[in-house]
Inverse folding.
């Protein structure tokens, strides 16, 4: 539906809805190729829930944060599920692990080159997978305003850099692979879910979505931080509150998108990754 229809359904004006989006990143529209906003029934429900909370005495920022928290809870602790729920139009692709690795490295490298003090989040499933990338992520953490890695660590530790989030044994995130860069200069998210029931010895397959759209990346960030907070990270809870108050970054420029695409192509070829892994 158009912003005019959303306004009519909720009793607000288009101007107020645009102000909410600019200041709070809420509601998050689908953008058509023409740039026009489009909304869903979920957006209507979300706006009405915010209005009810405001009538109950909450400030606008608190009401929006509460609705986002409730939406994150509905996903049952899965970043992949959160994105598929909120952005059903995002295409999903079946990729091998080696392709995911190439795409992840491209996003990580461009976050250093282009993003200005971003929030960085990575999910590694198993702690042993993180160990292979620990040195790299410590370097990434130096240029980030905040950084987190999620895996089956024994504990959650906010004193490390990046902060380590220990996921419980029943967490859906133990099947997920994510890389999120949320900051000025570059917004990018790669989120994948490992296909269950694969035969032993076969190439590991994942269902993956990715996006450079600020509203999609912000949703991934908020969900990952909510999961981290539930796992005991006080820093993640504070960062999530801070993120709720931050406006969405400007859309990634065509130049930056091209640079990221070129790096993805180069890494997917495999030559660069083999050389770097051999060092």
């Amino acid at each position: 539906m158009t912003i005019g229809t959303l306004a009519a359904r909720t009793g607000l004006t288009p101007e107020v809805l645009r102000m909410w989006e600019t200041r709070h990143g809420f509601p998050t529209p689908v953008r058509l190729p023409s740039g026009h906003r489009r909304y869903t029934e979920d957006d209507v429900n979300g706006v009405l829930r915010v209005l009810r909370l405001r009538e109950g005495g909450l400030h606008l920022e608190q009401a929006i944060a509460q609705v986002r928290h409730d939406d994150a809870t509905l996903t049952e602790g899965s970043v992949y599920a959160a994105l598929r729920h909120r952005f059903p139009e995002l295409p999903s692709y079946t990729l091998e692990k080696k392709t995911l690795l190439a795409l992840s490295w491209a996003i990580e490298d461009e976050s250093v080159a282009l993003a200005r003090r971003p929030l960085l989040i990575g999910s590694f499933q198993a702690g042993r997978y993180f160990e292979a990338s620990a040195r790299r992520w410590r370097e990434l953490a130096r240029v980030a305003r905040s950084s987190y890695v999620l895996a089956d660590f024994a504990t959650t530790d906010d004193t490390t850099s990046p902060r380590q989030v220990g996921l419980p044994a029943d967490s859906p995130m133990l099947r997920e692979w994510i890389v999120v860069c949320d900051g000025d200069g570059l917004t990018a998210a790669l989120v994948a879910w490992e296909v269950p029931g694969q035969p032993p010895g076969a190439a590991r397959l994942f269902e993956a979505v990715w996006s450079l759209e600020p509203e999609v990346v912000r949703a991934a960030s908020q969900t990952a931080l909510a999961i981290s907070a539930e796992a005991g990270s006080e820093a993640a809870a504070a960062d999530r509150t801070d993120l709720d108050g931050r406006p969405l970054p400007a859309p990634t420029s065509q130049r930056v998108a091209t640079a990221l695409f070129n790096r993805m192509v180069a890494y997917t070829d495999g030559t660069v990754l083999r050389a770097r892994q051999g060092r």
User: Anything to note?
Assistant: The first strand starts at residue 30 and ends at 31. Strands lie at 30-31, 37-38, 93-96, 116-125, 146-151, 163-166, 176-184, 186-194, 205-211. The mean pLDDT is 88.
